[in-house]
Write a sequence for this structure.
């Protein structure tokens, strides 16, 4: 078996690996890359939202325990900030991550003059650790995924729609589900707007929200399917908010589909 560069390699700067260890450098580099395309914005920062199992998909040669230990070392050294405080459900143990650029000043990293941090009074100073110093793409494969999944799409709308659906239903659908993103982006390409999605969610929550059986269909694969979405949108009263009237219209069943939770 030929094991010499027959697939997309991982890249990391030797100086970064020397400074903090190879495992830590690989995860920090990947976190930096993911933060560039992150849609989750909290407290003025971009956050990467992942479970340990999802991190393992990016580093399949490590066990989950190895990933946990490596991330904990990054947290302890102050390179990474993580929290579960932004999760809407207490049972959700997924963590949010970001690089603490103020505390990751590395001897091998030189400041980039074009990136500056402002003091409250408006006086500018160079940030201790600049975001532009880590290598941008980590793998060619991830660049291809980025092009396929985000370029020409509206990830901001997708995340807002799913957040709105979860808030209205108390469910935990994930905007990063490929099937969900594909379906919403297809409707967006047809000219539908964010308000159209919210209107469909409102009207079907009003129709099905109190019905134990029908509320199971309050999910992206039903609400935003091409055979359903236009019909549901036409149920919205013109010039009015959707009314909480129980209407048992049978959705198109989709037993072969599901969403990541």
């Amino acid at each position: 078996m030929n094991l010499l560069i027959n697939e997309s390699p991982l890249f990391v700067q030797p100086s970064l690996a020397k400074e903090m260890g190879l495992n830590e450098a690989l995860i920090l580099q990947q976190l930096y890359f993911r933060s560039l395309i992150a849609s989750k914005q909290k407290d003025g920062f971009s956050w990467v939202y992942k479970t340990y199992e999802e991190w393992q998909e990016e580093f399949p040669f490590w066990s989950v325990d190895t990933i946990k230990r490596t991330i904990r070392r990054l947290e302890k050294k102050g390179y990474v900030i993580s929290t579960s405080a932004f999760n809407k459900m207490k049972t959700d143990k997924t963590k949010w991550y970001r690089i603490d650029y103020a505390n990751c000043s590395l001897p091998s990293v030189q400041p980039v003059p074009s990136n500056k941090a402002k003091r409250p009074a408006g006086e500018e100073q160079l940030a201790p650790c600049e975001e532009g110093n880590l290598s941008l793409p980590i793998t060619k494969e991830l660049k291809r995924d980025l092009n396929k999944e985000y370029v020409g799409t509206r990830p901001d709308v997708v995340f807002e729609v799913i957040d709105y659906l979860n808030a209205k239903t108390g469910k935990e659908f994930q905007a990063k589900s490929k099937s969900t993103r594909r379906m919403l982006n297809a409707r967006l390409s047809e000219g539908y707007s964010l308000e159209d999605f919210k209107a469909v969610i409102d009207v079907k929550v009003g129709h099905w929200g109190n019905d134990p059986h029908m509320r199971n269909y309050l999910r992206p694969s039903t609400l935003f399917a091409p055979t359903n979405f236009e019909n549901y949108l036409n149920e919205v009263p013109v010039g009015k908010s959707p009314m909480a009237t129980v209407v048992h219209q049978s959705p198109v069943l989709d037993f072969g589909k599901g969403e990541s939770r």
Summary: The two ends are 38 Å apart (CA to CA).
